[in-house]
Amino acid sequence: MKDDRIVARREAARLEEPAERARELAERLGLRPYPVNYWVVDYDEMNELIAYDGFQTRYPHWRWGMKYDRQRKQDAFGMGKAFEIVNNDNPCHAFLQESNSLADQKAVITHVEAHADFFRNNEWFGRFAGDDEEPDAAAMLERHAETIAGYMDDPETDRGEVERFIDAALCLEDTIDQHRALAAERGGETAEEFADVDIDERLDRLGLSSEVRDQVFDDEWVEAQEGREHLAAPRPDVLAYLREHGERYDDEEGKATEREPWMDEVLELLRREAYYFAPQKLTKVMNEGWAAYWESLMMAEEGFAGTDEFLTYADHQSRVLGSPGLNPYKLGKELWEYVENAANRREVVDRLLRVRGVSWRNFHDTVDFDTVREALAPDPALEEVRSDTLDRFDPDDPRVDADGLERARAGEIDADRYPWAVLSYEGLCERHFSLAKPAHRGFLERVGRSELEQAARYMFDDEVYASVEEALADVDYGAGWARMREVRESHNDVTFIDEFLTREFVVEGNYFTYEYSRATDDYRVASTDPDDVKRKLLLRFTNFGKPSIAVYDGNFDNRGELLLGHRYNGVALDLAKAESTLERVFELWGRPVNLATIVTEYDDHELEVARRRGREPDGEEVGVRLRYDGDGVEHHELDAELEARIGAAEVDYDTKPDDWLA
């Protein structure tokens, strides 16, 4: 163990200088990260941290051991190596595996600095702490761990009961209102969320005789119902509703009884943790893509990976971006590049449309795009910053950092290793202008007539420049990065994909959808239509890709039963998992629980005919209500009114699986 600590300290000392330089470069590029503390850990410690979601202390529970074992096996069998883990906190804490190569460590550090910027500046992360508050996640999770461990160690509390209660709560950890700030929940629900129920008035409307009424609805039953609340609208924060109104089923008494105080506290702690981790799930594509973009720019384009490290880094990045399936790193990075290119194209088009004789109608015929590309290429001096070229730079040039230039000339900065230290933000913007890069050749030419017309529609000073060269001299090379930072502040994955996954992006990136086919009993390409690709991705990221469940009634049928509704968007639930989850919900409610959903039923004969003819069968959508009463699950026909209510028009994006299949 002593030798391990020596190795870790030696590695930490080796990484101190790269970490400092990476922070300087990130800030020079316009990022504003949280401070980051870097820790060097060994293989086992890394797997433990990954199991603990990036924190050193979590509440005692078997799930952490399961996650640790899964991660260890993934690494051992080559299914995924862990390079780092970083948490959203101020300061952030990033953990580097000591066995990584120096190239890998540098890649991780640049990646982490971009994550720290995203954590600090994306408003979805700010919603957890609240206005003018900074995250203190490590301390919060440690307090939660101590509290839950205390209950487990309490001789008056059954440890197994605590673990079962946590199991039940964790089945619902994503059933929160992730679009609502946690701070807004602290005061509880508003009066408008509940509809007042006058039991006497409702009984009067039934027109029952006093004799029948007294026999069927006795005073004890009426009094019990007065305390029950009927929701006026579905409530998406299921965990909060269960915390406030749930009970527990007492086997000895055979009925629901008041929960123990520790149960309410544990449920609230787990709910707060769900809110803390929600922004990371809401922005997975954006966040990983953002980090991959800036890591690539710093490591490859700015030479943060030395010449002897570049091949190792290239292999590192190819493994990350080349992972199969829906890869958030690759998709996110390509979307951010599209945001950058689109903003830079708008900037250039805006200048060119102001050239005398150029209009949106004759744009493609008048503009010589080869000439434009040459004009947009960065000043060669900016690409050749070295210790032997420093005399070529003027400290008064806005593209030059005067202090950095002076220090480089004095030998305090190694301009060969860190050429960016001599340049200002403006200089780096020109040095990395995206439309001048070979990888994006042709992006400017692809501007459509509709985009040109829209740009010209409100352009009144349309003859500002006498020539194309004069117009391009006024181009703002920072337009793309400015737009990226603007988008980074306010979007989540759903809004990000909805706005920027355009037809142009899908076609140029060769994206497509694939689906399971009942006709062929396997998966096949379903559609290459850009609208289908967008709709399917939006469904994938709505509610973390999980079914949207809300509380529809806390007094269903006036029997004190809980009614949950699956906001059906064309994707059916796995009924076996739904039934298992209802059993867990029963433990948090204490009385029978119901789940309204819609399933698609297929006739056996129709399935066989469809398979023979190679087409998809026509199924029938049927409403069903699952009910669990503590003994077993019953299936009931769903009321037509309730079936209409659970249709999730606001998240279905006008699509169903059948629409994706050719």
TrEMBL record:
Chain ranges of the SpoVR-like C-terminal domain: 547-598
InterPro entries found in the cross-reference section: Spore_V_R, SpoVR-like_C, SpoVR_N
SpoVR protein-like N-terminal domain boundaries: 12-348
Pfam families: SpoVR (PF04293), SpoVR_C (PF24755)
Highest taxon above the source species: Archaea
Protein name: Stage V sporulation protein R-like protein
Higher taxonomy: Archaea, Methanobacteriati, Methanobacteriota, Stenosarchaea group, Halobacteria
